[in-house]
Amino acid sequence: MSSLPIYLDYAATTPCLQSVLDEMIPYFTEHYGNPNSQHISGRAALDALSIARDKVCKLINADFEEVIFTSGTTESSRITIERASVSLMKTGCRKFVTTKSEHKSVLDCADYIKSHSIEVIYLNIKNDGLIDFEQLDGILDESVGLVSVCMVNNETGVLQDIKNIAELCHGKGALIHVDATQAFGKIPIDVGELDIDFMSASGHKVYGPKGIGILFYKKKNKKFLRVPGANQEVEFGVRSGTVPVPLCIGMGKASEIALHEMKDDFANISKLHRILIDALKGSLDEVYINGSAESNYPGILNVSLRGCEGEALMMECKRIMVSSGSACTSNKLTISHVLDAMSIPSDIAQSSLRITIGKFTTEADIMIAIDDIITATTKLRKMSPVWDMITSGMDLDSIFEGKYCGHAV
């Protein structure tokens, strides 16, 4: 039995499946040809690359020429947002719209395109983490070229209604980019049915290797992404450089496995999610689930245990590995920008843990996690002046400013 704490940080990264690794290894050591080479080794690599791409396409119901391999979601999003936004300026579309709760990689792209005279509009999100359709409808006009929305939020698991968002955007003439990092391979995605224009995803979030991802684009929108003068054979003219065939094969294999195991994985994760929430509800007071109770991916649970500090809780839970926010920002002792965008009061936001459940999580793991969290919360609350204020009936909303109207459990 492993002496390591139980891993409950699957939203940060997932272990690479052994079957994925096994399929990759020969393309490091035996079939190592460059897929752009015309000799037999190069053609073998190209054939393997094509098979891998086809597996990804089947998972999201895309056409073969609509998917390219990248180094991951960050690059895919950057290619889309930076190139498409600049290209769309030529059509008179000088505005880019995204939300305040997006992943840092998208917010960084938004900062970059501002320097190219593109106006960036940040949508507010409601207290449950969902976007305000009325606000989006009011913002959209002929000057908006691209809208970028995260399908499943990496900190809260909130699931946006992408189909209706896309319909609204298209009705006003705007294109939509979707960050599907936490949704890809975990919930069904049909890019045609959802009418997505661009979509980004990473391999290491779905039990594949790190350093590989995909960018989906509708064929008619490829013109907005092309590298000037790029060779058509280099990832369809959108991404230059030698394609990392072994990593692509790993991404393809992980996609193939996800297609076959998604339903069972989702059912198991949903069950464990419910066990965890019910146990915390039954044992502790002042427990808050940050995010929509109706529209979410159950593998990501953001829970606030009022009266405790999230970093202290994380350190006190010795038998589990969790985070106090997203992995990209957890080294900063500040309120998560996602929870801040949801207008969650600071004392609740600071008491949050992100617990993420995955393919290998068992019910026994969850029971240990429950015991660890309850024990840690009880201990920290005994030392917490904030908890003393809560139990004495003091109105913390007036002290910390802003009222929380999410769902306590």
Which labels suit this protein?
seven-stranded mixed β-sheet, disordered C terminus, four-stranded antiparallel β-sheet, Aspartate Aminotransferase, domain 2, globular, 15 helices, 409 residues, single chain, alpha/beta, Aspartate Aminotransferase, domain 1
Walk me through the structure.
- The protein has 409 residues and is an alpha/beta fold.
- α7 (162-171) links the parallel β5 and β6.
- The strands form 3 sheets. A 7-stranded mixed β-sheet has the order 2-8-7-6-5-3-4, sandwiched between helices. A 4-stranded antiparallel β-sheet has the order 12-10-9-13.
- α9 (245-283) crosses α13.
- Mean pLDDT is 91; it is low at 326-330 and 402-409.
- 41% of the residues lie in helices and 14% in strands.
- The chain is globular, with a radius of gyration of 22 Å.
- It has 15 helices and 13 strands.
- The chain folds into 2 domains: 6-11 and 262-408, Aspartate Aminotransferase, domain 1 (Alpha-Beta Complex), CATH 3.90.1150; 18-258, 3-Layer(aba) Sandwich (Aspartate Aminotransferase, domain 2), CATH 3.40.640.
Strand order of the largest sheet: 2-8-7-6-5-3-4
Radius of gyration: 22 Å
For the record, the CATH architecture of the largest domain stands as 3-Layer(aba) Sandwich
The CATH class assignment of the largest domain is: Alpha Beta
- CATH homologous superfamily placement of the largest domain: Type I PLP-dependent aspartate aminotransferase-like (Major domain)
The stretches of 5 or more residues where confidence is low (pLDDT under 50) are 326-330, 402-409
The global form is globular
Helix content: 40-55%
Average pLDDT score? 91
Structural class: alpha/beta
Helix segment count? 15
CATH topology grouping of the largest domain: Aspartate Aminotransferase, domain 2
